[in-house]
Write a structure and sequence with these properties.
The protein is an alpha+beta fold. It is 54% helix and 9% strand.
């Protein structure tokens, strides 16, 4: 997991779009690509990010299509879809589908922690994380593939009537920028501070269909089992840290709540964290310090206010944690950063 991965469900549509051209040019001597293609036979498996990037680059070269990753909505193909897609499409409302997408999005990529938010103007934003190296071609292509996939799922669930109001992208316009609006059929904002798909909230509770609750429960159970295996297979500590940082799990959550979020037992959680030479308490402490540092530098909030924001009883507790972990009080840290460039703060 630490090397990064992408679900084969994100890559298989690209093979279909490339068509026979790619396979005709692919020689048997290319063992690396042949190995990846074997993995792609299972829509619920995952390939390393490096292998995925290599295959995508070769597909683009073979088709001579730089916009290959910008895919329009296509007809649902049950044979090539993954279990998470099945669960998404069986939901009775978009609200329910987005809940599962947000919860289980790491099944599609280790870097994909989706957040669904609602603005005061009743605009729903399905947000993707913005990577530090989003300008790099490989990272941009991954974003394109993920957005294309999510748009396909949304339109398969809601029909062509669903109106996407805008898609915001964190990178500059590309040489094939016209392809975005043509394929995704909406306005595109480049150089945005966020990466997201936007639409009106009225779609959230539209009655889409009525799925047999037993079927929905069965699919949910299968996705949860996949997610449970994923949590056990890699760095659980990193996954917990992300969940805490993104407010998906409360900083004050107890051990059982955290275990429930990852669909594992408290005993399994402890065992895996012990193997990773850490503990839930230490992870929570590290996240609290990280958030506190940012607030101390970027806001004028009092130390008492910051302590309460991160779930502590007050300033004394935050003082004690800071002194123990970084040999400085919060006040000393804030003072020291006044003459330190923000870049250094981010790196620290």
């Amino acid at each position: 997991m630490e090397q990064g991965y992408l679900s084969t469900a994100l890559i298989r549509p690209l093979l279909e779009a490339a068509g026979s051209t790619f396979f005709n040019e692919l020689g048997d001597q290319d063992e690396a690509i042949q190995r990846i293609l074997k993995q792609l036979k299972d829509p619920d498996s995952r390939v390393s990010s490096g292998d995925a990037d290599q295959l995508i680059s070769q597909l683009i070269r073979a088709t001579n299509d730089e916009a290959l990753c910008v895919q329009p909505s296509h007809k649902f193909n049950a044979h090539s879809s993954c279990q998470l897609q099945h669960l998404f499409l069986c939901c009775n409302t978009l609200r329910e589908a987005l809940y599962y997408l947000e919860k289980f999005s790491p099944l599609l990529s280790d870097q994909l922690e989706i957040q669904v938010t609602r603005t005061r103007d009743n605009v729903i934003k399905v947000k993707l994380p913005v990577a530090d190296n989003f300008i790099v071609a490989a990272e941009r292509r991954r974003n394109e593939v993920i957005i294309s996939t999510l748009l396909n799922w949304l339109r398969q669930l809601c029909g062509s009537e669903l109106q996407i109001s805008q898609i915001s992208l964190p990178f500059p316009a590309t040489q094939y920028s016209h392809q975005y609006e043509r394929a995704w059929k909406t306005d595109i904002e480049f150089n945005s501070e966020e990466c997201c798909i936007q639409f009106h909230s009225r779609w959230l509770d539209e009655g889409l269909h009525s799925t047999n609750p037993h079927i929905l429960k069965m699919m949910k159970r299968e996705v949860e089992e996949q997610y449970r295996k994923l949590a056990r297979s890699g760095s659980l500590a990193e996954r917990i840290r992300k969940a805490l940082t993104q407010n998906k799990v409360r900083l004050n959550a107890n051990q059982q709540e955290v275990a429930d979020y990852f669909h594992i037992s408290a005993r399994t959680l402890n065992r895996h964290l012990h193997k990773e030479n850490t503990s839930l308490k230490q992870i929570v402490t590290d996240v609290r310090i990280e958030i506190s540092k940012r607030l101390l530098v970027t806001t004028d909030d009092s130390i008492e206010q910051i302590a309460l924001q991160i779930g502590l009883s007050g300033r004394r507790t935050l003082d004690r944690i800071f002194i123990k972990e970084i040999n400085q009080s919060p006040a000393q840290y804030r003072q020291s950063q006044k003459t330190t460039p923000l870049v250094a703060v981010a790196n620290g």
